[in-house]
Amino acid sequence: MRIDCLQYANWSERIFRQMREGNVDAVHVTIAYHENFRETVLNFEQWNRWFEQYPDLLQKALTAQDIDSARAAGRTAIFFGFQNPSPIEHDIDLIEIVHTLGARFMQLTYNNQSLLATGCYEAEDAGITRMGKQVIKEMNRVGLVVDMSHSADRSTIEACEISERPIAVTHANPHTWSPALRNKKDKVLDALFQHGGMLGFSLYPHHLKDKSQCSLQSFCEMIARTADKYGVQHLGIGSDLCQDQPDSVVEWMRVGRWTKEIDYGEGSASESGFPPMPEWFRDNRDFGNIQAGLLAIGMSESEVAAVMGGNWYRFFDENFVPDKSLF
Questions:
Q1: pTM, entire model
Q2: Rounded mean pLDDT of 261-285?
Q3: Would residue 43 count as lying in a domain?
Q4: Which side of the chain, N or C, has fewer Cβ within a 10 Å radius?
Q5: Domain with 290 in it: what CATH number?
Q6: 191: in domain
Q7: 163 with 195: CB under 8 angstroms?
Q8: How many Cα atoms within 13 Å fall on the side-chain side of residue 58?
Q9: 104-144 pLDDT, tens per residue?
């Protein structure tokens, strides 16, 4: 089973077919960056059209069991998530609404301070806010997973402690391997895994050691070292693949509507667009390279199967449905 817990591609039939060529069974798709509720609904509508247009390739998914039916039919199961809490605006009741529409992940921040928590680009981290505590409680109740991929250290640790259900960092790497601003320090990973959370390893070049020149062996050794330290059961893939997106989309991702200036993120003015992907991971057809690389460095077949999708399947099964004890 192959599950990728984060992509934000410029979706097309070509990419949908590449998913099938790469035997990708499920993908967590970003459906909102800075969109408000109504704008996010329009994105749901677009995906509903694609489900109608490509029923042989795609299937909308709400539970882990939908992956099973998609695999049986030769399709890729599509789950939705937000990289920002903007779709719920200021209204906690919208959490249940977006879950009903199909959302299964929501980041509490996207780099900046939000109404809920502090992003990893802020100088000061005030932790989870008053509203954030209430939102986490409601997300736990309905089955919307707390994602802290773009959040600062204190906020992420507090989210692990406050949440009554395990949270996820869907796309990031250990800071000790590559000290990118958004990669997670040991104290953050300690809290994440102590509370049963999941980490999806990112293939976005700014998060990799040696960036676009990162070797497959280096990436796989990083996964193996993390498994040795924390246990393989907490680990998966969250590629952060932004395939075929024009460079202008980077500005939308980083800037949205909150500033008139350009935010270059972890790059620079000379690196303002999308960086080239490593040659061994260009698109969805290359997941087999990661699987082979993990086996080549000595991980067992069962460990590799867990990282490639088995762990995400279990996490989805346990966390995408309402918790009746919290009603």
A1: 0.96
A2: 81
A3: yes
A4: C
A5: 3.20.20.140
A6: yes
A7: yes
A8: 22
A9: 999 999 999 999 999 999 999 999 999 999 999 999 999 99
